[in-house]
Structures are given as C-alpha cells and as structure tokens.
TrEMBL record:
Taxonomic source organism: Halorubrum distributum JCM 9100
Alphabetized InterPro entries for the sequence: Ap4A_hydrolase, Calcineurin-like_PHP, Metallo-depent_PP-like
SUPFAM superfamilies: Metallo-dependent phosphatases
Recorded GO CC terms: cytoplasm
Protein's name according to its UniProt entry: Metallophosphoesterase
Length: 227
C-alpha cells in the first residue's frame, strides 16, 4: 500500500510528499526548541551521509537558548527538513515577536509545510482527530492536536484511539520516553526541559536519544508517561 494522504483545500497546498527511494537513511526528530547544542550532538551521532534525510516534527524554536542557531543549522543543510510547529505558527501569525527574530526567520516559518508524508508515514506537529477524516482538519488543528475529545494533558490523547491507516509521527505533547505505537510515534521527549532529544530511524525501526544538559522547569502534570 502506498496511499497519499488527502487533506482539505487549506492544508493540501502546505503538504509535501516525498519519494524516498533515492534517499539513504531517514530520521524523524522531535521538538528541538532552540537547543542547538543537543541538536549538534544528535546530528554528530547520526553520522549523516549525503543522501540521508532528516525530518523534524516542528517546534525548532522558542524556549531554548539558541533559536537562530537551530534555524541556521536546519536551513543551511538540504538534508534537514521540518514541518511547522505551533511555536513557528505563533510567530507567523504575529502573536509572538521574540527579540531574536530576523525577518527572514518569519518567511522561513511560513514556507514550512504543515504536513510531510512518504510511504504510509505522515509527519505533523500535533496530530489528527481519529473521529474525523483527514480532509476535515484545519492547519491549526494539525499543529495543536492533543486531546480532541478530552481535556488537555489529562487525555485521552488522540493517539490513544487512532487506528491508522497512516503511521503518524508527531511532537507537541511532551513524553518522558517516546510514544511507540503501530499508528502513532510521539517524539517530543522534552529536550528543553532536561529530557532527551529523540530521533527515529525509519529504515531500521530504532530510536536514538541524546541526553539534554539544559534545564527548564516544566510541571510533571505536563509530561506524559505513554506506558
Ligand atoms: Mn513543542
């Protein structure tokens, strides 16, 4: 099966489909949030070859110490691509204007796709509502989905009830270790909160993690144990 996801009008133009046959290894990486040093350590560990591909789940920026450094690293390397996270979206909308922001950063965030797909894989920042068709989702929903029929961090989470057909890779909701399910893989392991930065190796079905050395307080009620 190789089914291209069908989004609604507002989203489809911001959906990027990859043919991956010509790529080597493929990694999907969780929320970085301006943590350039830990990202550099992860990329060093992965020993990328020229034909490898790294897909970020968004939220490259905000909260951590070096957002521009993360942007520069990702923009300057054509092997690194990202979907847009809700933190990039806040800047695109003008709701946030951090003092590190350069005008070209906003244009870059605007250029980021809302969804990336290949094979049966779908990468979005937040997630999807299992009770509705993909075509019904707005950009905002795909970027912020957490508990569509529940209550924020109390759940139930969208991925508790999602049964495919896609395998959705997402960030946005911080977990103390990756969510690993048949149809949902959660990669935000809170590197900016003293957790880890996680990469999933798609070809080998393996997780790589790098320990963070930065630390920002986050209430335990906002870190989810997927077990
Ligand atoms: Mn995030």
């Amino acid at each position: 099966m190789n089914t291209k996801p069908q989004f609604g009008n507002g989203v489809e133009a911001q959906h990027e489909r990859f043919k991956i046959d010509s790529y080597g290894k493929i990694y999907i990486v969780g929320d970085v949030h301006g943590s350039r040093k830990i990202l550099e350590r992860l990329l060093t560990d992965l020993e990328l070859a020229g034909d490898d591909l790294v897909v970020f789940v968004g939220d490259l920026v905000r909260k951590g110490p070096d957002s521009p450094g993360v942007i520069d690293l990702v923009r300057e390397d054509s092997r690194l691509v990202s979907v847009r996270g809700n933190n990039e979206q806040k800047i695109v909308r003008g709701d946030k204007n951090p003092d590190w922001l350069r005008e070209s950063d906003r244009e870059y965030f605007q250029s980021l796709p809302v969804a990336i797909s290949f094979d049966e894989v779908l990468v979005v920042h937040g997630g999807i509502d299992p009770q509705r068709s993909l075509a019904d989702h707005t950009v905002e929903e795909l970027l912020t989905m957490r508990s569509p029929h529940g209550d924020g961090y109390d759940g139930p989470f969208w991925y508790d009830d999602y049964e495919g057909p896609y395998r959705v890779f997402f960030g946005h909701t911080v977990h103390d270790h990756p969510v690993e399910r048949e149809h949902a893989v959660g990669l935000d392991t809170g590197c900016v909160y003293g957790g880890t930065l996680t990469a999933y190796d798609y070809r080998n079905d393996e997780f790589h993690t790098v320990e963070a050395k930065t630390h920002q307080e986050r209430a335990n009620s906002k870190i989810v144990d997927p077990a």
